[in-house]
Amino acid sequence: MDFGCINLVVKNPDVAMMTYLKLMGTNNVQEVIKLEGLTDTVDTVDGYYMKTRPLHLGVFTPRDSKGRMGQYLEKYGEGIHHIDMFLGQDEFEETYARFKKEGRPVSEKVAYIGRFSEAWFWLDGSGEQGVPIKYATKTYRGLSMWENTDYLDTPRKFRKIKITEEYIRPRVVINSVMVTVNDWEHQRQIWSSIVSRPATEQGNIFTLEPGQVDDGRGNIFVPVRFQFSQSKGINLYCALNKEAPINKVMGRRGVTGMFHNLAGYVTRDRVHEYFKQLEESDFAMVDPKPALNKNKGNGNYFFFVHPICTHGVLWEFVSMFTRGETVKARFDWSDTEIFMVPPDVNK
Known about the structure:
alpha+beta, 2,3-Dihydroxybiphenyl 1,2-Dioxygenase, domain 1, 2 domains, 9-stranded mixed sheet, 6 helices, 21 strands
């Protein structure tokens, strides 16, 4: 199982797609697919599938307000709706059967996306994890649960689009989604089960020493990470102080978990340049300038882009770093061009 895609629900996917080309840079988007009439019998959506690295980004609008995405858009407005987990077909079938046996709120039937020979099912947001997750596979044979599958001639139309406008940015990668939860111990067990891997506490991202983190915005939380290939990750944040802003938002919504923000990493010597590019492109920047994270010797610059200009999504951008099998962070100098001490001194 791997973390594959983050999906946004928006009012106008054409406008949102252009926003994200400007945000990410056309040089950081390998391919854009336009989809029309993509359905799984619950939702019918139109939009774009943007192939960025290492996570893809889906930008969709529902055709009505009856389905899960339509109801979300009507109730909460634009924002992060769900994430996609990619599985091999054998694991996909085993996971669907396991979730049903465990009593998790999965789709009544698997959806077979005929035009792509792909299949998916949903773990509904009413489950203990608190957010919707879609599990998807590329089939290599007939499905073993074919009697419990809707075979759908969908999407009605799809095509690669030619990007004519050019927005050149430093290297920017989408690596992580942050999920706020209300019960740290319980939720880490739930998420370990549904993403099939252990949790890693990361009070210090370099040593993985457990600890609390104060984000300077009223939230004191314990960070937990579920690590995937290519440094991708799902971070769980549980605020320990009851009056924390993220707890208040979950309380108002009446949920046990919610997507909080997305994280992108930027070439280390070009963070300030990228900040200026976004500012000049009229993005609403939360902080006046990139801030240097001094917490426990972190050493990364970071800044936020306000959701008012990114279709309801709060973005955090951080100096580029990677994570290996140990999940410990390491600065990534691979495409840095300007320095005094050569990065290869650490080889």
